[in-house]
Structures are given as structure tokens and as C-alpha cells.
Design a protein that fits this description.
This protein is of the alpha/beta class and 781 residues long.
Length: 781
């Protein structure tokens, strides 16, 4: 095989299949290594695609051809020396597969491209986003010097003796999607070591900097993988290796290490020796992560609800509710022509009093939303935190009775990576947790892909059995009463494991046991599991879960709709919108008024918005906020807005016909800006890049800086179409841009309007019959 591999490499270089400006400055040896890896990645992609094609043909009366395609090995494709151009051209893939069928199976010589046609262009496009190696340069850690760049200690971990044929899923297909097989094939052929780094990205950079090693490229996988994979070079030993990084649990390490035994390339495994290097240890990582999270959770206001899992889908649902709120601004009024789809959804919103009640009809809402002139795609995450194994976001939500609640969303994790998260949730005083994960149903237990289950019992990894809370959501469709089993990896699910556990459990996954045990009995904990595969079946395995993700979507959306609706959530509160829930604003405004009645109404409104967004409740918390925020009056506020609007006019008048968009300056947009503090704005000029805009408007920006000093900062940023959807626009004809925004968006959102008295003074008056806002005073002077 090594000879074939060398010939393939020589062929690629000779035909000029490799190259590109990104690699022009790389050493010849680095380019050669990436050439080898790129070719294997392309072969891996083609083989992964062929499995999907075989699935399609099986369902479309081409069973014999499908079975033949599955008998083609990756090595078969590699031996054919297909050009890199063809391997990286999705339109060529069926042709390459057909050529292989004709060569390997003469009985298919009359098979044509029409016979194996599959017009799933979206799938092919998504495959092209992965299975590639991008050259990268990681900066040397500044903390590393000649005083501490000694070799880093690591643990030698033996490699488990895993028989890939005994595993109940198609392990090769699963690995191809999650981490790619190509890097393991390359390691098997060239003898590269594979190492595993626990801890953060910075921990990894610190280690390679101390050892004076170089990161050459990042391997991009088919599916989102938070464990970044790098090709690393050691100039001292002239050795290349692959590094898996950002690992936060021992279960994940064992899962990744097992792949070294499972994957073979021409009967060779990726084992340079009988052990692998593992940097760091799970216990230390867990302690550090728990400490960071407890500090974070105690710094932030306590969340009314913590939801672990399906974070991306939840973000889409929240965005959908925000879109529906713009389609139907008044929740009590039905919109749209009679009997149209949007009219039916609008009627449902009116009847339920919540925009989340149409979650399962998101495509209809999005279509209608896009018809709105100047729609605003709002941001709802008020706090975000990226951890090595997960992301955290806080969102403010408005309830049907006018309260503002804070929900905390945490992304899915792997196995024992949830342990420090669960402990931090418990130790920071949180008491309500919902977990939404995925699980495999055991064959013969009446479960199918797409079902949602809320088990009544769960085992832990060490065999303890815990009772679970009765579910509160989706009670009309969620299946209940199951017993949940736990593994550390789907590779644990072998024939021997199945014989032992299939009579004891109904579903199986990796995290619920850890969560239940570490959250403890005082925390309300409800797990819901989306069935992603059927363990022991032939056609519903985890290896094809990605292709069958649509089957899970309906159950997922129904569950999320129930979660929001049953908690009385009306709508999300945008990050660039005023909090306008009448009850919440009214109560908070009066609290602040009772503490500082002498403050101007505009100052008290600013404090009200800040207090609601920060989740402050007690008088002590409000006192601290009031002391931290300088008092100001309406005249100062409006003067500053007029003044800063003039600065923007200086820029806009230079060239007529250019549209500008204010995309940064969140505190101004959401009503929390204090005019005694500096204001920073980010502005787009037409579709220019930041560099071009800075050149064109250099004189104007310089003049603004000279006049305004640190008081106002205007930064020109590169055009981004998505960000313009939530921007404040202006052009050469615009006047009082910022002042108008405050008057037309912020004040009206609160149910107020600005008036100028006969002496030129500013006052604010309630807008008669306005929706939302404060109605406690006829005139706020």
C-alpha cells in the first residue's frame, strides 16, 4: 500500500492537482504532507457519499446495485488515482462510483448514470464543507519563554482491544462523519502518532509552544466537532502527528482512542506503538471547569430555568418567535388573508397568547417574515460563554402575565463532560433543569427514530439505578415509563453488551446518569430524549442518524413548543429592543422611583432597562446599580444624541447615494446607554470593506475624533448583509439619526412621546392607547 500511496502522491503533484495561495509559503515537506492528507480526505468523502447513495438506491428499487456499492472499499478508490479535481467536484461523484462498479463488478457493465441518479444537491454541498485540511498558524503562547519551554509531561494510555466487527453500528461510517477516517489512514500508512489533549485550546497551545512544535493544519470534519483536530510538526525530531484537542472528559478520550483499533487501511491500524499520549487528566479539567462555571453562574443573576441540550435548535425557535412577533405585532389581532397559512397561525397566537405556539410551523413564519419591509432579525442572547466542551447563553423572555424571566441554555456534551456542569448548576443555587438529549432505542421495545421519550428510571455508568421525575412537557406525545441505560461510547454497544443489557433497559445514551447523580435530589431534573437510532437494527443505526435527522425534527420542535408554551412564555426579548412588558417595567420603574425619586425620568428609565436585563430584584442590588450609574437629565441625553447625529451626518454627506448602517452600539439601541459615558458605534458604508471605508472617510473620521475625543468613537466595519437586518440606517439626506431612533423606537416602545415646551424644554408624555409601556403617570416631567 505504501507504494500505491507514493505513486498517488507523485501523480497528484505531477498533474498540478495540489496548490493554492494559502500554501505558497509552506515548506515543501508540509505541502507534501497536506497533499497526502487532502487526497485521503477526498477519498473518505467519496466513500461516505457512496454509503448515502446506497441507502437511497435501496429505497428506490436498486437493491442489487446498492449492495455492490457498499462492497467498494476506500482503498479501491485510492488505487484508481482519481484526480483531485474530480474528487472535489460533487457533480463527478456518481460518475466515479459508476466507473468503479463497472471495473470491480462486470455484471454491472450495462448500469448507467441514470440508474444511480440521486439529485440530493444539498447533501453534496454540505459534504464539501468538511473533509478538508486548512493550513493554519497558531501563535506561540506569550507566556512561554526560554525559561519554561521544557518537554511537557503526558500520560501513556494503552489502547483498548476493540473489535470493530462486534460493534452494533457501522463504525467506519460513523467515524467518517464525526472525525474522518482519513487522518487515521494517513497515520497507519506513514506511522504518524495520534495524541489527545485534555483542557482548553489555550492548554494545547501552551503545550506545543513549550515543546517548540508547529501547528501545520486543522482537519475539518463532516459534522460539527468541538474537539479540534490539528496536524502538528516537531522540527527537532522531524516528526508529524495528529492532535485531538479541547477534550473535557475521560469518556471522550476512551471513545477517540478506540478508533485507533477499529479503523484499518489495507489491514493496517494507526498504531505507532501500543500506547498513546494523553496530555492532562479528567479530574483536574473537571475541577477547573466547575470552578469557572460556579463563578460565572454566581456572578450572573440566577436563571429561572436551565436547559441543557439542543441549543442550536432552541436558538432557531427563539428567532422564529421573534419573527412571528414582527409579523403579528399585536398578539390580540389576527393578521393575513382569511384561510391563508399565516392567518391560521396568527389565529393560534391570538388564542394561546404566545408566539411560541407556532414553533412547528417555522418555515411558514420565516416566509411571511421575509415579506416585511426592513425586517429586524434580532439578537436575543444577552450573555454568551464558550467553554471547551460546550457553549452557554442567557436569554430574557417575556411571560404572558408581563414578567421578564431569564433562561440559561447549555449545549450538548459527551458523557462525563456534563459532570462539572451539573455540579456548578447545583452549587450556584439553581433548582430547575431540563435536559434534551439523543438516545438509541433498543430493538423490540416499540421505539422508532423520531420518538421522544421521558424515561422513568436511569442507570448510571457504575450500575446505580435512580428514579426520574415525571415529565411536564409534551405529555400528549412523549413516551414514558422506559428504563435508561448508560454507556461511555456507542462503541460500547457490542453484541456481548446487548445480550447483557437488552432485557434490562429500553433506551441507551451517555449523560443522564451523570446529570441525575451530580445534580442531586434537590434540583428538579427532567430528561427528554430524542430517539436517533435503534440499537440492534440493520437500517436505523447511529451511523445513518445524520441522514435521518429529519425524522427527529418534528418531535424536537413539538417538545420545544411545549417547553415554552407550558411555562407561559409569550415572546423573547431582543438584545436591541426595549423591554416593554407593561407589568415588569411598571413595577421596576416604581422600585427605582421609590429609591431615587429626584432622578430625571430618562435616568430612571435607563436604570429600569438595566435592572431588568441584569435580573436585579432586591433594594440592595438596585442601590448598587444606582450608585454605579451617574444621574443625567433629558436635556443632556437629547443634546448628546443631536450632537452625535451631527457627527454621522458629516460622514454621510461626503458622498450622496451611499447607505450607511449602524450595527454596533447595543446599549444605545436597547435603551441602556448613559449619556455621561462614552458611546462606541460601528458603522457600515454601503458594501465596502472596513479598510476601504476607512480610506474614503479618513478625513471625516479624523475630524470626529479631534472634536469628540473619547466621548464618541465611530468604527467603520466590513459590510455584512446579515447584520444589516438589525441595523439603524441613514444616508446623505438623513437628519437627527440617533435622536430620531431614540424618539421613534425607544420612547414609543415604552409608551411615551417627546414634547418640546414653549421654553424649548423637553418633556415626555404618555402615548394614548399605546401597546405596552408604562401607563402609571399621565405626564412624566
Amino acid at each position: 500500500m505504501r507504494k500505491i500511496y507514493t505513486l498517488v502522491l507523485a501523480f497528484l503533484i505531477a498533474t498540478g492537482a495540489v496548490g493554492g495561495t494559502a500554501r505558497a509559503e509552506m515548506t515543501a515537506e508540509h505541502r507534501a504532507q497536506l497533499t497526502q492528507l487532502d487526497y485521503l480526505l477526498a477519498v473518505d468523502r467519496l466513500d461516505f457519499y457512496s454509503d448515502g447513495l446506497a441507502d437511497y438506491l435501496m429505497d428506490h428499487d436498486q437493491k442489487v446495485a446498492a449492495e455492490a456499492i457498499r462492497r467498494i472499499e476506500p482503498e479501491d478508490y485510492a488505487k484508481e488515482r482519481y484526480s483531485s479535481q474530480d474528487l472535489n467536484n460533487p457533480d463527478k461523484w456518481n460518475e466515479l462510483i459508476l466507473r468503479m462498479l463497472h471495473k470491480k463488478f462486470p455484471e454491472f457493465k450495462n448500469l448507467t448514470l441514470k440508474d444511480i441518479e440521486w439529485n440530493y444537491n444539498f447533501f453534496r454541498k454540505k459534504l464539501m464543507e468538511g473533509f478538508k485540511a486548512d493550513p493554519i498558524t497558531l501563535k506561540r503562547e506569550a507566556s512561554v519563554s526560554g525559561l519554561n519551554n521544557e518537554p511537557v509531561t503526558y500520560n501513556k494510555r494503552s489502547i483498548p482491544n476493540v473489535d470493530g466487527k462486534a460493534i452494533l453500528l457501522d463504525a467506519e461510517r460513523y467515524i467518517s462523519e464525526k472525525t474522518t477516517r482519513a487522518l487515521f489512514w494517513d497515520a497507519a500508512i506513514t506511522g504518524k502518532a495520534i495524541e489527545f489533549h485534555m483542557g482548553t485550546e489555550r492548554d494545547f497551545r501552551q503545550r506545543v509552544s513549550q515543546e517548540d512544535r508547529e501547528v501545520v493544519a486543522e482537519v475539518k470534519t463532516r459534522s460539527a466537532n468541538y474537539n479540534k483536530i490539528y496536524l502538528v510538526y516537531d522540527a527537532r525530531t522531524k516528526e508529524y502527528s495528529y492532535a485531538f484537542t479541547r477534550i473535557s472528559g475521560d469518556d471522550r478520550v476512551k471513545h477517540l482512542i478506540a478508533q485507533l483499533r477499529i479503523l484499518k487501511y489495507e489491514n493496517k491500524v494507526a498504531l505507532k506503538s501500543d500506547f498513546v499520549r494523553v496530555y492532562g487528566n479528567a479530574n483536574a479539567v473537571h475541577r477547573q471547569q466547575e470552578q469557572r462555571l460556579v463563578e460565572l453562574f454566581k456572578t450572573l443573576p440566577k436563571a429561572d430555568m436551565v436547559v441543557i441540550g439542543q441549543k442550536s435548535a432552541i436558538g432557531n425557535v427563539i428567532a422564529m418567535a421573534g419573527m412571528m412577533a414582527q409579523v403579528q405585532p399585536d398578539i390580540k389581532s389576527v393578521v393575513g388573508p382569511e384561510k391563508s397559512q399565516i392567518q391560521k397561525l396568527s389565529q393560534r397566537v391570538t388564542e394561546t397568547g404566545t408566539y411560541f405556539s407556532v414553533t412547528t410551523k417555522a418555515p411558514v413564519v420565516k416566509t411571511e417574515f421575509e415579506k416585511i419591509q426592513n425586517p429586524m432579525a434580532s439578537s436575543y442572547e444577552i450573555v454568551t460563554s464558550e467553554q471547551p466542551s460546550h457553549d452557554i447563553s442567557d436569554v430574557l423572555l417575556e411571560t404572558k402575565d408581563g414578567r421578564i424571566v431569564r433562561w440559561r441554555f447549555i449545549s450538548n456534551m459527551w458523557g462525563d463532560e456534563v459532570v462539572p456542569v451539573a455540579r456548578a448548576i447545583k452549587n450556584s443555587g439553581h433548582d430547575k433543569v431540563v435536559y434534551i438529549g439523543t438516545a438509541g432505542g433498543i430493538i423490540g421495545k416499540g421505539l422508532k427514530v423520531g420518538d421522544v421519550v421521558a424515561p422513568s428510571k436511569t442507570y448510571t455508568q457504575d450500575g446505580k439505578l435512580f428514579d426520574l421525575e415525571k415529565p411536564s412537557y409534551g405529555t400528549d406525545f412523549v413516551k414514558t415509563g422506559q428504563t435508561l441505560g448508560q454507556v461511555t461510547s456507542p462503541f460500547d454497544e457490542t453484541k456481548k453488551w446487548f445480550d447483557k443489557w437488552s432485557n434490562k433497559i429500553d433506551v441507551v445514551e451517555l449523560e443522564t446518569g451523570y446529570l441525575k447523580e451530580n445534580l442531586g435530589p434537590k434540583v428538579s431534573f427532567q430528561p427528554y430524549l430524542l430517539v436517533s437510532d435503534v440499537v440492534g437494527s440493520e437500517h436505523e443505526t447511529l451511523a445513518v442518524a445524520a441522514a435521518d435527522s429529519g425524522k427527529r425534527k418534528n418531535g424536537q420542535l413539538k417538545l420545544l413548543e411545549s417547553l415554552f408554551v407550558n411555562n407561559g412564555i409569550k415572546a423573547p426579548v431582543s438584545n436591541v429592543e426595549m423591554i416593554s412588558a407593561e407589568g415588569a417595567v411598571k413595577v421596576m420603574y416604581h422600585k427605582i422611583d421609590s429609591l431615587r425619586a429626584s432622578r430625571d425620568v430618562t435616568s430612571k428609565l435607563q436604570l429600569t432597562q438595566l435592572a431588568l436585563r441584569k435580573g436585579l430584584k432586591t433594594d440592595a442590588e438596585l442601590e448598587a446599580l444606582i450608585k454605579a450609574e451617574p444621574s443625567f437629565d433629558r436635556q443632556l441625553l437629547m443634546d448628546k444624541l443631536e450632537k452625535y447625529s451631527g457627527a454621522l451626518e458629516l460622514i454621510s454627506k461626503k458622498i450622496s447615494g451611499v447607505s450607511f448602517a449602524i450595527v454596533g452600539g447595543e446599549e444605545l439601541l436597547n435603551g441602556t446607554w448613559n449619556p455621561k459615558k462614552a458611546l462606541k458605534l460601528q458603522v457600515m458604508a454601503g458594501n465596502m470593506s472596513a479598510a476601504d471605508a476607512n480610506k474614503v472617510y479618513a478625513a471625516e473620521l479624523s475630524k470626529i475624533q479631534a472634536v469628540m475625543g473619547k466621548e464618541l468613537s465611530v468604527e467603520m466595519v466590513t459590510f455584512d448583509a446579515e447584520k444589516t437586518r438589525q441595523a439603524v440606517f441613514f444616508n446623505s439626506n438623513s437628519k437627527r439619526v440617533l435622536a430620531n431612533h431614540y424618539e421613534n423606537k425607544i420612547l414609543k416602545k415604552l409608551g411615551l412621546t417627546k414634547e418640546i415646551d414653549k421654553n424649548g424644554g423637553v418633556r415626555f408624555r404618555e402615548v394614548t392607547e399605546s401597546a405596552g409601556g408604562m401607563r402609571c403617570e399621565a405626564v412624566l416631567l
